[in-house]
Amino acid sequence: MKGKLIVLEGTDGSGKSTQFARLCARMDAEGLQYHRLVFPRYQEPSSMLLRMYLQGEFGSHPSDVNAYAASTFYAVDRYAAWKQDWGGFYQRGGVILADRYTTSNAVHQGGKLEGEEQREFFDWLADFEYGKLELPRPDLVLWLDMPTEKAVENLRRRESETHTKGDIHEVDEDYLRCCRACAKKAAEHYGWQRVPCLDEAGAVRSIEEIHDEIWTLARKALNL
Fold first, then answer.
1. How far apart are CA 81 and CA 11, in angstroms?
2. Scanning 32, 74, 139, 204, which has its CA 20 to 30 A from the CA of 3?
3. Does the pLDDT value for residue 124 go beyond 60?
4. Domain interval for residue 103
5. SS3 55
6. How many Å apart are CA 218 and CA 169, to the nearest integer?
């Protein structure tokens, strides 16, 4: 008996973490049982290689590590989480909410490739994580589509407020722009649900308005 898996995906600075917190709070308010996941799991030993990668120990630019190699770093962390944390709950029919998942490899690593090579990577990634590693496929992927310029503003503001510096993904605006373009293609390839972060007039939608759309889609996926 498999459960339900709902994933929130988006480029850095898209407001994904805020929306994920809102979704979890809504589930709590409705009295619904679920298990919460946030990837990567930076505090766990299984994330060691991806932390080294993000800290620039394998190169100062994301392209210094090819899409396939970098994807394995993140996949190992997810596999460990599946075995150690949430697999049993899911297999007993539980609901899983995930902030990032295998989908992030498609967005962040797929952006290192173009054309047919990118499409081949999408297919390889699905076979590797869902086939070879036997991780469950999401029932719903909600992709927050935030224009890169707005996302960068959010990232720089967060860094200023927290007195921190972003990782090699977050500080590279060209890379972030490439990731958004890749996310559009990945959404079409895999059938993700796009949630626009701008309204028709080009203004950023309110947090509550975006949440309401996410909740409507999540309720449908959960048959509520």
1. 22
2. 74
3. yes
4. 4-221
5. coil
6. 29
